Amino acid sequence: MSRAAALMPVLLLAAQAAAAQDAGAPLKQNWFDDPFFRVSAGLAACAVPQGPFYTAEERRAQTHSRLERGTSCWLAGKCTDSNAYRYDKPLAPKVRAALLAVPGVQKSSVWVVIQRRWVYLQGCVPSSALARKLEHAARAVPDVETVVPDLMIGTRGKPPYPTAGQ
């Protein structure tokens, strides 16, 4: 991965912070340190996802439900760890590698958010066949519980995911 691609989440956060301050909106941060990264940048006009960035108020509202969701996996016997969110950081490089191995991924613009073993694929792909291949590749990674393919074909229209600046 190029250095520029590695810096993308940091640059996105800086841009969001600047936009929030300019608009007088509350600052959004990745309070829970959820993995969020860009896999490819082949469709320049693709809308950038909002990512796991929340205001302080949104963070407070999410804290309780995240505790419940993280623990319920363990209580149901689906996780060996008592918090499903602890799987996320180790999953990130595995999911990235699996997606980068999909032929044609460089012709798309895809971002990934990982929360409690759920992988959210967001962005734009040139075909539904590529979207299916990316979803299948992410599902094949051990410890991934669910894949949510919020991908749109092309770059025209309203994205099926919240976009940066919303």
Task: Describe the protein's architecture and organization.
With 166 residues, this protein is an alpha+beta fold. 40% of the residues lie in helices and 17% in strands. The protein has 4 helices and 4 strands. The chain has helices spanning 3-23, 56-75, 88-100, 128-139; strands at residues 36-41, 109-115, 118-125, 146-153. It has a 4-stranded mixed β-sheet. A hairpin with a 2-residue loop joins strand 2 (109-115) and strand 3 (118-125). The protein starts with a helix and ends in a 13-residue tail after the last strand. Residues 3-21 have low confidence and may be disordered.
Radius of gyration: 16 Å
The largest sheet has its strands arranged as 1-2-3-4
Low-confidence stretches are 3-21
Secondary structure tally: strands? 4
Calculate the mean pLDDT score and round it.
87
Provide the structure class: alpha+beta
Major sheet, described briefly?
Answer: 4 strands, mixed
> What oligomeric state best describes the polypeptide chains here?
single chain
Helical fraction: 25-40%
Spatial separation of the terminal alpha carbons: 28 Å
Count of helix runs:
4
| Helix and strand element order | HEHHEEHE
What share of residues are in beta strands?
A: 15-25%
Descriptors for this entry?
globular, 4 helices, single chain, four-stranded mixed β-sheet, alpha+beta, disordered N terminus, 166 residues
